[in-house]
Amino acid sequence: MFVTPALANEQDDIAVAERLLMATELGTESGNAALERANAAFVAVISKEPDSDVMRGFRYTLERCFREKCKDYRFLDNPEYSTFKTDEQLESQGCYTRPKANMEGCGKRSFKACEEPLPENVSQVALDNYGILICLTDNPRAKSIRDSLYDLFFDEEVEKRLQGVAPTEREAIKSQIGSSDI
């Protein structure tokens, strides 16, 4: 294989392409980190007691989402399901086991979710369980708050990743980060 030398203007094109690729990678990394931070901050605030006026009832939403997810896990009682949880796993996440749910009248044959108390580590349980996060952001106000946190954290994450980059290069890269990179 022969290497064809690049013409002078092709070098510029290559530099632009490299910056674009760097911007795409940087945007993706920053977006992922910002989303993790936004989710963590949002869940930490709504999991605090007592529910603050600012969050107006989101603690109830967290309880509902947590309990619905427990119900979903209990319903899948066949180990062949990819999201199957053993009774030990259910209990470790703060959910009632299948036998306890049946005793409480909220087992597999019931349409209602159990009244499990939120576990002490509910923030971690919610962050480890994408289904709970999706449930929480079904609420338009909650999604708006989480998305606003994301926007704030995204800019910080981009700046972190551009430390040490020359100012002219830095601005060129930042200008090429688009919403499709996130």
Task: Put the structure in a nutshell.
The chain has eight helices and no strands.
SSE topology:
Elements: H1 8-46, H2 58-75, H3 87-92, H4 98-104, H5 122-128, H6 130-136, H7 140-161, H8 167-176
Helix pairs in contact: 1-5, 1-7, 1-8, 2-6
N→C terminal distance: 36 Å
Shape: elongated
Strand content: under 5%
Number of domains: 1
Mean pLDDT over the residues: 82
Query: Helix proportion of residues, in percent?
Result: 55-70%
Output the helix-strand order: HHHHHHHH
Largest β sheet strand count, sense and barrel closure: none
Which structural category do the helix and sheet elements fall into? Answer: mainly alpha
Low-confidence stretches: none
- Put simply, the count of helices is 8
Rg result: 23 Å
Total E-strand runs:
0
What does it look like?
The chain has 182 residues and is mainly α. Helices cover 64% and strands 0% of the residues. The protein starts with 7 loop residues before the first helix and ends in a 6-residue tail after the last helix.
Keywords summarizing the entry:
182 residues; mainly alpha; 0% strand; elongated
